[in-house]
Design brief:
Helix content of chain A: over 70%
Distance between the termini of chain A: 64 Å
Order of helices and strands of chain B: EEEHEEHEHHHHHEHEHEEHHH
Largest interface: A-B, 12 and 22 residues
Number of domains of chain A: 1
Strand order of the largest sheet of chain B: 6-7-8-3-9-10
CATH class of the domain at 2-95 and 159-224 in chain B: Alpha Beta
Shape of chain B: globular
CATH superfamily of the domain at 2-95 and 159-224 in chain B: P-loop containing nucleotide triphosphate hydrolases
Structural class of chain A: mainly alpha
Radius of gyration of chain B: 19 Å
Number of strands of chain B: 10
Distance between the termini of chain B: 46 Å
Shape of chain A: globular
CATH topology of the domain at 2-95 and 159-224 in chain B: Rossmann fold
CATH architecture of the domain at 2-95 and 159-224 in chain B: 3-Layer(aba) Sandwich
Number of helices of chain B: 12
Radius of gyration of chain A: 23 Å
Oligomer: heterodimer
């Protein structure tokens, strides 16, 4: 009994304030550690792009994996986003507003929000997790060390093609998601609320700003940079065998989702006001 | 002048792994490094070409510090061929691409494709693999022993002056273990390289190496010839030489617990 109280005196934090400060310090250290490492990674990726030290073949392969292979799921999510927005909007506006306003609601919601964010989330699950698991496995099986030992730069070989492919493919995917979402919303508005295509498009044009499209593609560009960058960063930090790969992949998915959602929340005050 | 010199090398992760290791490997020597698991043998090997950076101390290759600058590190990595424990072949590349990665990038850019193909072919023949059969295969299509040989071929194709072997016989059956040991000796002689072998295979190490050392708790516990190792009065060294002594040492440590 005595030894237990001695133990608790030795190890327990003295006050809640000290405990809180300790926890805050640990989180701050972790955040700064990740931020610093990702900054370094981004700088090295930029350098290898500028110096053209990456394989175009590897880049095209990543464009295929991230872009072409993601198209079916992006089409489905884009279409569902348009349909749901149209159905919800039609229900809420029943009898209170001119029905053509639904066109504006669907287009603005899809272009400003649903298209980029849902495509970002799809990319996190389909591509980000894959990159982290792939690079994590290479890390724990010493393949990354092997690149170093052979005088090769794993950043140019592995990170640059993936980050560059994300930057190129994400805006294209978001463009597709926007188009398919608007088309699906238009069809749903006709079937659900009886709104004709011309009225839908009239409403869409009424409140349209060209800036909205630029806003949508800016979001896509930022998400397309952040997702592969985080997934590569996490993959290259993996340790601890197969269990470590699983743990890091889960952490990376959480990290990427939080980043997409936080960046999404930062966009309106920065670019819409 | 020593080919590889470790000077007061310290490294800690959660706990100290290397605590001031000083060691010299001479030119043309075959040197084996033994020690219980987790004593930092592989960590020491990785500090040789900055795969792990020491917290303190230095590593010199042919008198030049690996840690004095980027050019020195690049030069050191060109001089060294590293054989990884599990071969560490690149999963997405076939055997040809894996082995040709062992040729320094600037040499690869300069030389003609036929020359590269010839070098890869020769390296595979040196490790007793049939190039025609294995060249197009992916690592996943090879057996453990073949993967290891491809890993060795990748390490020697650039004609390094030093070979670092990280537990080259781990996970192999006795026949393949003997074959890889013969290969280490033959390659070291034919290519005229300095070899540093980290291994748990004491008998094999004592048989093929000119000098051996033992690491324990991050410190060098023994360094000498295989004969001196066999005749050492150090209980830990004895435990490694003789199974019966190992059992006695285990009994003593269990009794102490």
């Amino acid at each position: 009994m005595e030894s237990r109280s001695l133990e608790s005196r030795t190890y327990a934090p003295r006050t809640p304030v000290v405990r809180w400060l300790g926890g805050f310090g640990r989180v701050a250290e972790l955040v700064l550690d990740h931020a610093g490492a990702m900054g370094m990674l981004a700088a090295r990726v930029v350098m290898s792009i500028v110096q053209w030290r990456f394989s175009v073949r590897a880049f095209l392969r990543q464009v295929w994996v991230m872009g072409i292979e993601s198209l079916p799921i992006v089409f489905v999510t884009g279409a569902l986003a348009g349909i749901v927005t149209s159905q919800q909007g039609g229900y809420q506006m029943q009898g209170s507003m001119p029905s053509y306003v639904l066109g504006s609601l669907v287009v603005q919601t899809v272009v400003l929000e649903m298209g980029p964010v849902l495509t970002g989330i799809v990319l996190v699950g389909r591509v980000g997790a894959r990159i982290t698991a792939e690079l994590g496995t290479m890390k724990v099986s010493e393949q990354i060390d092997a690149y170093h030992s052979l005088g090769r730069d794993p950043i140019s070989i592995l990170a640059t093609p993936r980050v560059l492919a994300g930057i190129v493919t994400m805006p294209i995917l978001v463009g597709f998601a926007n188009i398919i979402g608007i088309c699906a919303g238009m069809v749903a508005a006709r079937l659900d609320s009886g709104l004709g295509f011309e009225s839908f498009l009239y409403g869409a044009r009424l409140f349209w700003h060209n800036w909205d499209l630029l806003y949508s593609f800016t979001k896509a560009l930022v998400f397309g940079t952040a997702i592969p960058l985080i997934s590569v960063h996490m993959g290259l930090r993996t340790k601890g065998g197969a269990e470590g790969v699983g743990r890091t992949t889960t952490d990376a998915v959480m990290f990427m989702l939080m980043t997409v959602l936080i960046l999404d929340a930062l966009f309106p005050p920065l670019l819409l006001n | 002048m020593s080919t590889i010199s470790y000077r007061n090398v310290h490294k800690a992760f959660d706990h100290p792994v290397l605590s001031g290791v000083d060691l010299d490997i001479h030119e043309g020597e075959m040197f084996a490094l033994f020690g219980p698991s987790g004593t930092g043998k592989s960590v020491l090997l990785k500090t040789t070409i900055d795969l792990i950076t020491p917290d303190q101390g230095d590593v010199l290759i042919e008198g030049v510090s690996v840690y004095s600058g980027r050019d020195e590190l690049v030069e050191a990595r060109e001089k060294v061929g590293y054989v990884f424990q599990n071969a560490a072949l690149f999963d997405s590349l076939n055997v040809f691409d894996n082995v040709s990665m062992g040729i320094p990038e600037k040499v690869l850019e300069r030389q003609r494709a036929e020359v590269t193909a010839r070098k890869v072919w020769d390296a595979l023949e040196l490790v007793n693999l049939e190039p025609r059969v294995v060249l197009p295969k992916l690592p996943s299509e090879l057996s453990g022993g073949m993967r290891k040989r491809v890993g060795i071929a990748r390490a020697i194709v650039g004609r390094p002056r030093i070979l670092l072997w990280d537990e080259p016989t781990t996970g192999l059956d006795p026949v393949n273990t003997a074959a890889v040991e013969r290969l280490i000796v033959r390659l070291s002689q034919e290519l005229d390289v300095t070899s540093l072998v980290v291994t748990h295979d004491i008998e094999g190490g004592l048989m093929i190496c000119d000098r051996v050392a033992m690491l324990d708790s991050g410190r060098l516990r023994f360094c000498g010839s295989p004969e001196e190792f066999r005749g050492s009065s150090d209980p830990l060294v004895q435990a490694f030489v003789d199974r019966a002594a190992a059992e006695r040492a285990l009994d003593l440590s269990e009794a102490a617990i």
